[in-house]
Amino acid sequence: MSRFPGADAYAAEAAKLIERYETISSEEVHEEILHLVPDGALRSLDIGAGTGRDAAWLAAKGHDVVAVEPTDEMRAAGMRLHPSPRIEWIDDGLPDLSALEGRDPFDVIMLTAVWMHLDADERVSGMARLAALAKRGAVMGLLLRHGPVPEGRRMFQVSAEETAALAETAGFAVLVNTPRRNIRADAPEGVTWTSLAFRRL
What we know:
Elements: H1 8-12, H2 14-22, H3 26-29, E1 43-47, H4 53-60, E2 64-68, H5 72-81, E3 87-90, E4 106-112, H6 120-133, E5 134-146, H7 160-170, E6 172-180, E7 192-200
Parallel strand pairs: 1-2, 1-4, 2-3, 4-5
Antiparallel strand pairs: 5-7, 6-7
């Protein structure tokens, strides 16, 4: 059993999820915040990196990326599908991200469909940890899922308003808080998303 919240269900469904994640581009997933993610030699952190789709997108922009993924099957697929000297893969996860202790802070942090796996206490400690990992002026993008919980998944109903308030308390300014369309035509009934972006003060 994984020591990270929500990771076990992804191992059980890895083959199906890997195919699903790779059929959608990062530009489609993150269209509301693309203007905030610069090109160049930056340090990026992709938390819950999955198949490495977003890590590869950031690497193609010139970033050096730490891809954090707690599910062995997903991490192995990411390393195979997106081999890049700019991507470092790490077995770790929120809320502690203990493997990143002592690292230099990051310019860009991405969390795609991760935050709803954390309970209320984990969200508080996790946001404080993210603030500690973010360089002053850093951009953090967070794609938040709402709606019915798939069977066997550990998820919580988390509002964009709560997430924005936690971020502000931790030292971030809210840049984007936008409900977004479902990208996939086969999205489950009742599932919606919010794109959020923050800047570290």
